[in-house]
Amino acid sequence: MAATSKNTSRSIVIIGILFFIFGFVTWLNSVLIPYLKIACELNNFESYLVAFAFYISYLVMAIPSSRVLKLTGFKNGMSAGLLVMAVGTLIFIPAAMSRTYILFLLGLFVQGTGLAILQTAANPYITILGPIESAAKRISIMGICNKVAGVIAPIVLGAIALKNADELVERLDTMSAAQKVEELDALSGRVITPYIIMTVVLIGLAVLIYFSALPEIETDSEDETLAAANKDKTSILQFPHLLLGTFAMFLYVGVEVIAGDTVISYGAAQDIEFATAKFFTSITLGAMIVGYLIGIVTIPKYISQQKALKISGILGIILGIAAIITDGVVSVLCVSLLGLANALVFPAIWPLAIDGLGRFTKIGSSFLIMALSGGAVIPLIYGLLADNLNPQMAYIVVIPCYLYIWFFAAKGYKIR
C-alpha cells in the first residue's frame, strides 16, 4: 500500500507538471489577442480567431487523439502531444518574422492539437488514478497547477509583447505607411525569443515524460457490476449523461475563455491602460486558484461534486449580470471574478460525465475533449456582439451558459 501510494503521488506530480504546461500555453492567448489585434491590424471578431484557431483543434483532433492513445498508451501519448505542441510554437517564428496572421493561427491550431492529445490522456488518467468520489479534488489540484501557470504566462508575455503598447497605438495614427510597417514589424518580432524558449522546453519535457516511470492505467476492462450494467451498450451515444455533460463542458470552456481572454481587451475598452489591463487575466486565474483551494478542502467531505457545480452555475449568473450593469473597474473585476465561478466546473463535470463508462472511457473522454472547442465558438459570439453592440453588453452570452451548467448539476448527470 505504501508503494502504491508513493507511485500515485509521483504520478500526480508528473501530471501536475503537464497541467502547468497546459495552463502556460493556453493562457498566453489572453495577451496574444490584444497583441495581434495591434500587430496585424484586426477588429474584435478577427482578433478572437486566436481563441477559435486554438480551441477548434480540440473538436477536430479529439477522436484522432483517442486513437493515438489506443496505439501508444497514456505515457507515450503525452510525450507525443508535447512534441506536437513544440511544432506549433516553432511555427510562431516565421509567423512573427513575416507578420502573417494566418501563420500565427496555424501555429495556434497545431499547439491546440498537441494539447488535445495531452488532455485526452491526462484528464481521464488523473480521474481514474484514485476513487471517483474524490476525482474533483485531484482535478482541482491539477487546476491549481494549470492556473498558477496561467497567472504567470500573461504577465511574462504581456511585459514583452505589450510593453509601451498604449504609446504605440497613439503614435500609429500619426505615422506614414512606411513607418507604421516598420513599427508593427518590430512589434511582431517581440515574440520570437519567448517562443524559441518554449519550443526547447516542450521538447525537453517530451523526452523526460518518455523516460519517466509513469505507470499505465487500464481503462478497457470493467468490474462485474459495471460490465453487467453496460452489457447491452454498443455505442457511446447510449450514455445520455455523457452527452449532456459534453454540452455542459462546451459551454463552460466558452465562458472560461471569455473570462480570461477578453478581459484585457475589455479593460482597454473601459479606458484602462494596457499597462494595468494586462494584469486582469492574472486576477481571473488567481480567482480560479482560490476556487480550486475551496474545492480541495470541501470536496467530498463537506459538499458533493454536483452541489459544487450547482453553486458555480448560480455564481456565474450573478457575476455575469453584475458585469453588464456596472461600469469601469468594477465591471472588469466582475468579469475577472468569473474565474471563481468557473474553478470547480471542469473538476465536477468530468467525473460526473465519465462515471460508469467502463470500456467506453477513452472515447467518452474524447467527447469531453471535443467539447473544449466551446473555447473557439463562444468567444467568437462574444466578439461579434462586441462589434455590433458593445464589449460590455456582449457579456450577455455567458448567462444562458451558466444556466445550462446549473441544469446539468441539478438533473442532467442523473439521466442514464
Keywords:
globular; 416 residues; single chain; transmembrane helix; Growth Hormone, Chain: A; transmembrane; mainly alpha; MFS_dom; MFS_TsgA-like; cell membrane
Please tell me about this protein's structure.
The protein is an all-alpha fold. The chain has a single domain, classed as Growth Hormone, Chain: A (Up-down Bundle). 78% of the residues lie in helices and 0% in strands. α1 packs antiparallel against α5, α4 crosses α19 and α11 (240-261) packs antiparallel against α18. Intake of glucose and galactose. Keywords: Cell membrane, Membrane, Transmembrane, Transmembrane helix. It comes from Christiangramia crocea.
Strand content: under 5%
Termini separation: 34 Å
Q: On the 0-100 scale, what is the average pLDDT?
A: 87
Shape: globular
- What is the CATH homology-level superfamily? MFS general substrate transporter like domains
Structural class: mainly alpha
Helices and strands in order:
Elements: H1 2-26, H2 29-39, H3 44-47, H4 49-98, H5 101-128, H6 135-161, H7 165-172, H8 177-188, H9 192-210, H10 224-229, H11 240-261, H12 263-269, H13 274-277, H14 280-298, H15 305-325, H16 328-336, H17 338-342, H18 345-354, H19 361-370, H20 374-388, H21 398-410
GO molecular function: D-glucose transmembrane transporter activity; galactose transmembrane transporter activity
Keywords: Cell membrane, Membrane, Transmembrane, Transmembrane helix
Main location: membrane
